[in-house]
Amino acid sequence: MARIDVIMPQMGESIAEGTLSRWLKKVGDEVKRDEPIFEISTDKVDAEIPASAAGVLAEILVQEGETVPVQTVVARLETEKGAAIAAAPSAPAPAAESAAGGAGGGAPALPPAASAPPAASAATAAAGASAPRDGGNGATFESRVRTKSSPLVRKIAADHGIDITSMAGSGVAGRVTKRDIMAAIEAGTAPAAGAAVPAAAPVATPAATRPSTPAQEHQLPLPEAWPGDVVEPMSVMRQRIMEHMVLSRRTSAHVTSFMEIDFTRVARIRNAHRAEFLQRSGQKLTYMPFIIKAVVDGLKAYPVMNSSVSGSSVIYRKQFNIGVAVALDWGLIVPVVKNADDLSLTGITRALNDLAARARAKKLDPSEVQGGTFTITNPGVFGSLMGTPIISQPQVAILGVGAIEKRPKVITGADGEDTIAIRTCAYFSISFDHRIIDGAVADQFLAHVKKSIETFPDAGI
């Protein structure tokens, strides 16, 4: 008989912990190799974690809703069928505060039911949280976690001139969380090295309903539930979206411009090649690959649209990684088509369909939702005509695609006479960061996208 530890995986280079959101198996269930056994939520993605070996789920050490460091043992598999199985799962250990990554802030995870963990579970959690581990470059696990923190926290620290390495945070292994950095900013100074950052005082209101910053807590009272109301805690993903959107609004000077784009030519090309494209590639040809092609052309013509702000510097990205928002039943996720400039229309279509399908099945790897340089959101699929989308940090612009529909338009014929014609059109919006992008540049970019779509070549489909 042998038991195999099931660990909390590191779902991305910058992620130090994850929340075990749901067990897909219970103690005593037989598990096949590569069969999903639990779901995790991080600030990047929700994902199903497969078993590394076949066997029987003998022990569950981390309960649903708990947030633990990566490499923590969350369960054990008995590799010989029929072996003795623990009679009951271990009691839940107190959840560690959820630390933010690139997608949002540091809202605490929902607390599990209070109970004292058994000695074995406590030892396991303590080992995962505090035992020094060499990262292969001479640095301990704790120092790597603290100095890396999360992309979001590092950006906030850089923008406010705070040395994050001098702070002792309240997160895992002293990791500085968004709450720590915001508290330091509110106080006006960063804590000195070795000075512990006090944790927020517990309140009766569920963590998910609290505002994301101390400043907000002073500004607005929390609403109270009335008789008959239904109160539900936010999911980890919903909390991250909330925090990321509020932070983006606070960080970037948002301005939005609109243009109407004529899709009549693209619609004709699409209709003419749709059947042959499906037969050849096995993929349905939608409007989005045409839009991505036009956007990449525009980004090459106006590089500042494909950049990021780093303090008082501008980083001009040489990769063209296009994020495309995908609506899920439980939230929103933005998988990224990497190096879109190297892909054909067929390649973009395949990548889009694959990413969207795996996003809905919770099969995305965190690397597939990271590294975007520009984002496209398509509320038009739900009938929306136009919108003012919020920029996905640390990007500086986002394109909104309205409903593509037939409209009566005034056009000038070859003889110079104006006539009414039916055209396939859509409103596009570009929300941009006015800190580094002027309105003229944003409008020139959008005009370039418009021209690329309205004159799309009929070759190479």
For the record, the CATH architecture of the domain at 253-454 stands as 2-Layer Sandwich
Secondary-structure element order, N to C: EEEEEEEEHHHHHHEHHEEEEEEHEEEEH
CATH class (first level) name of the domain at 253-454 = Alpha Beta
Helix content: 25-40%
Description:
- This protein is α+β, with helices and mostly antiparallel strands and 461 residues long.
- Among the domains are: 3-100 and 121-130, OB fold (Dihydrolipoamide Acetyltransferase, E2P) (Beta Barrel), CATH 2.40.50; 253-454, Chloramphenicol Acetyltransferase (2-Layer Sandwich).
- It has helices at residues 119-130, 141-148, 151-159, 178-187, 214-219, 236-251, 264-281, 288-301, 345-360, 439-454; strands spanning 3-7, 17-23, 30-31, 36-41, 46-50, 55-60, 67-69, 73-78, 254-262, 307-310, 313-316, 322-324, 326-328, 331-333, 336-337, 374-377, 397-401, 405-412, 418-433.
- Strands 9, 12, 15, 16, 17, 18 and 19 form a seven-stranded mixed β-sheet that branches. Strands 1-8-6-3 form a four-stranded antiparallel β-sheet.
- β18 and β19 form a beta hairpin.
- The termini are far apart.
- Residues 81-148 and 190-218 have low confidence and may be disordered.
Primary descriptors:
single chain, 19 strands, alpha+beta, 22% strand, four-stranded antiparallel beta sheet, Chloramphenicol Acetyltransferase, 10 helices, 27% helix, seven-stranded mixed beta sheet, OB fold (Dihydrolipoamide Acetyltransferase, E2P), 461 residues
Summarize this entry quickly.
The chain is α+β, with helices and mostly antiparallel strands. The protein is 27% helix and 22% strand. It has helices at residues 119-130, 141-148, 151-159, 178-187, 214-219, 236-251, 264-281, 288-301, 345-360, 439-454, and strands at residues 3-7, 17-23, 30-31, 36-41, 46-50, 55-60, 67-69, 73-78, 254-262, 307-310, 313-316, 322-324, 326-328, 331-333, 336-337, 374-377, 397-401, 405-412, 418-433.
